[in-house]
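Form 7-S
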Amino acid sequence: MKNMITSVILMLSLSALSCTPYHAQGAGTGAAVGGVAGAVLDHRNPWRGGVIGALLGAVAGATIADISMKGSQEAYQNNRPVEYQTDDGRGVYRAEPDSDYYEGNGHTRCRKIREKVWEDGRLVKDHVREVCKSETYGRRY
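Output:
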């Protein structure tokens, strides 16, 4: 049991090094929720349930963060709505550019992207994300 916990901690630490801040935030949130849920559901061995729940939650959280980032970037680049669905159609993610477009300090271009997530036909998330594209001006080697 002690070796399993050490292995899990090592694996999570190594995987966190390759994550972007968005992946890490999604994985952290997913791990916390999954760990609590797993500990509550496994009455006989809450530690085992917590570790398994944290692992599954971390993977799910990082995946959701990745879908959100890719969708908002694609909506920004193409200036049109983007929609992803699960195979069974129960989960839907939609990102659409808001009409607001503004220039920042002359070196960045930002656009607001509205993200919506539906589960079983019910809206569960409605969020506005600001996506910026930066440009560098300077000499090249």
